[in-house]
């Protein structure tokens, strides 16, 4: 195993406040890693800095050893990095299959000249369509391909966003609050689904979630943040029992 995602000394400041303060994290290939922390700990800001939605003051982000720190957000999918959002970023007026196909086209290989001349486009369109249909099957959405996204329940919309992110064949997938708003039965389904995605598609997953039971049950290793800094980094058992984590989460005294 090798570190597929490397975050080194990342710092993000808003005015005088360090929302992310000298954070370093290594995520091994094939892992499911979790980030936990109270509100305001810097979890989503860290995701935003990794994906270039905010500019860090300093620090480096690497995928498989390649520095992606200066890349534009729209370039990251081609480099193997995709994410989902707390607030769903779907094309709600379009149907489910179209949303997934949009994600597939993000990772399309046909260059602009080949596309303009029609070289290889039909073959690639067939391949992208087949991948979209396979993802609809894996995420139990195959009966909803023609349904308009805006008409779907929230939990189903979450699966559509996940399918769209997977359609571009990411190596690293960042999930921001995937269990937020789900019923407990749906959380259990999500846990099984994320394991299947990791195993079937070989995707390394990093997730932020307030559902601590899910994170501790699912993740190979867990990083705890507080006030923008890493306070613990280890297995779920190690992080859960760390004295600093227990003080922050449970209010226990030293």
Automatic annotation (TrEMBL):
GO terms for molecular function: ATP binding. Coiled coil: none annotated. Pfam families: ABC_tran. Keywords: ATP-binding, Nucleotide-binding, Transport. Residues 5-252 form the ABC transporter domain. This is ABC transporter ATP-binding protein. It comes from Nocardioides humi.
């Amino acid at each position: 195993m090798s570190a597929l995602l490397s975050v080194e000394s990342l710092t993000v400041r808003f005015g005088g406040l360090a929302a992310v303060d000298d954070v370093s994290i290594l995520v091994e290939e094939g892992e499911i890693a979790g980030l936990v922390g109270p509100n305001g700990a810097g979890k989503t800001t860290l995701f935003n800095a990794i994906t270039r939605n905010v500019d860090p003051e300093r620090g480096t982000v690497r995928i498989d050893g390649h520095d992606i720190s200066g890349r534009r957000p729209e370039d990251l999918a081609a480099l193997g990095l995709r994410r989902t959002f707390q607030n769903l970023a779907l094309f709600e007026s379009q149907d489910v299959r179209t949303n997934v196909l949009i994600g597939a086209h993000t990772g399309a290989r046909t260059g602009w000249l080949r596309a303009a001349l029609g070289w290889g486009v039909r073959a690639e369109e067939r391949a992208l369509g087949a991948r979209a249909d396979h993802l609809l099957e894996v995420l139990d959405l195959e009966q909803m391909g023609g349904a308009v996204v805006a008409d779907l329940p929230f939990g189903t919309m979450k699966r559509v966003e996940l399918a769209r992110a997977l359609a571009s064949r990411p190596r690293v997938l960042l999930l921001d609050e995937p269990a937020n708003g789900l019923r407990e039965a749906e959380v259990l389904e999500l846990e099984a689904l994320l394991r299947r995605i990791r195993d079937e598609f070989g995707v390394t997953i990093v997730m932020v979630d307030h559902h601590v039971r899910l994170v501790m049950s699912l993740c190979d290793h867990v990083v705890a943040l507080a006030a923008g800094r890493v306070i613990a980094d280890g297995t779920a058992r190690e992080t859960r029992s760390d004295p600093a984590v227990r003080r922050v989460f449970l209010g226990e005294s030293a």
